Amino acid sequence: MTMITIIGLGAAAQLPPIAASLRQLPWYARTQHHPALVGVALAGTFDAVLDTPAAAQQIVTQLLGLAGDVVYLVPGHPLLADASVRLLGAQAPHQFTLAESFFPNEIWHRAVGVMPTTAGVQYCDALDLVPQVDERASWATFHAKFPYAHPVAPLPVHPGSVAWLTNVHGVQLLQQVVLQLQQVYVPSHPVAVVHGDGHVQHGTLIDATVLVREFPVTLYLAAAEPLANQRSADGIAYVITRLLGPGGCPWDHEQTPQSLRRTLLEETYEAIDALDRGDDASLLEELGDVLLNILMQAEMARQAGRFSMGDVYTQVTAKFIRRHPHVFGDVSAADSEAVLQNWYRIKQSEGGSDTPKSPLAGVPLALPALTATMALLNKSKRHGVTITDPGASPLTADQLGAQLFDLATHAMLHDIDAEAALREVNARYRRRVDALFARDQHLQGQTQELWHDADRDA
Predict the structure, then answer these.
(1) Does domain 4-103 bear CATH number 3.40.1010?
(2) Is it true that the peptide bond before 16 is cis, omega within 30 degrees of 0?
(3) Using alpha carbons only, how large is the chain's radius of gyration in Å?
(4) Cα 194 from Cα 107, distance rounded (Å)
(5) Of 93, 193, 281, 293, which is most buried by a Cβ count within 10 Å?
(6) Which fold has domain 233-307?
(7) DSSP string of 180-232?
């Protein structure tokens, strides 16, 4: 069994003292481009695989395939986020040992001119910002309009804390790193580029790919100030906390969850309008306004001791993991119909109460009447109600729309509130279904016209 001794070269131009005692072993380096390796005889390097998919895994596979004991040399320190060392530790924990290594921290901090600190500092191997290619179907490929852009999710760095990105070995990797960082950093975020000789270049994130011409380098990103942290959820969460907190906005302080109900509804309709118009600029803005309202409701609930945004995240994340066992578990779903069957079965088993839920539970009372009618009929169909066509012949979408328009015209001319009229029929239908369910009567064989009998169950 191969035993791998790992030595961290730090950032200096000399080898760690322990290296001399290991010269009888073959030396393999993650990269030959390090000042301490100038003139050093190596049995091999992994430069050839660094720009290929799953580079860290390829390094580990090749190391474990070597015959006899070897030394593996890595830039920096092996415990400072080196992706290949991390994978080696996970896959072969008994086949490596860490030798005395140099820490590069002091040199890096001195070069950039910042005080060393361990508070919230992030160290990330640049290879961890390379997305893993997956050729399976995605939303983009399903609709066959554009290629799928692989993200790094979750992103291993957070803009609210200092970040050191190590082992940026070439321009291709740097371009991928900058692209991924722009998920959460504004393009103008300051970046310091630390070269192996201690030379530092200063610029912004968006300029980094044209700024750097010599590799390898280490990138330093200072923590984003709360108000400058505008590309992550934490930034807007901080703004909402300030608005509703001490010294915040008097108008926001006067609001209540109920007073913002109309705003949430209006912003949602405005987002739908932008979606229907295909106006991406408006959709981007309106989705932000919807999110703002969600965060306002959650912060008010937090201050009232009811729940927090963290609870919202937990609830929706857990629910979608639970309802997608074909993605996050070992359940098979060959098509969307199988997905829906699993979804409804799992959803029916949820609730946390011994009292069975009405078949129509989950259709909000506040839905627009026509939308509610469609939702009620769809739920009824899933529970065995036979949905019959009340028309003499099928209608096209245009014909149906014209008939609905005519009905609305009739309602207007006769001073009838069409929305309220349909809402009342929906309520009668709910009452009839709930009455049958309460008496443990099955819905199979019923038709949607059972609402005619609702009054006798009232």
Answers:
(1) yes
(2) no
(3) 31
(4) 10
(5) 193
(6) Helix Hairpins (1.10.287)
(7) HHTTTS-TT-EEEEEETTS-EEEEEGGGHHHH--SSSEEEEEPPPPGGG--SS
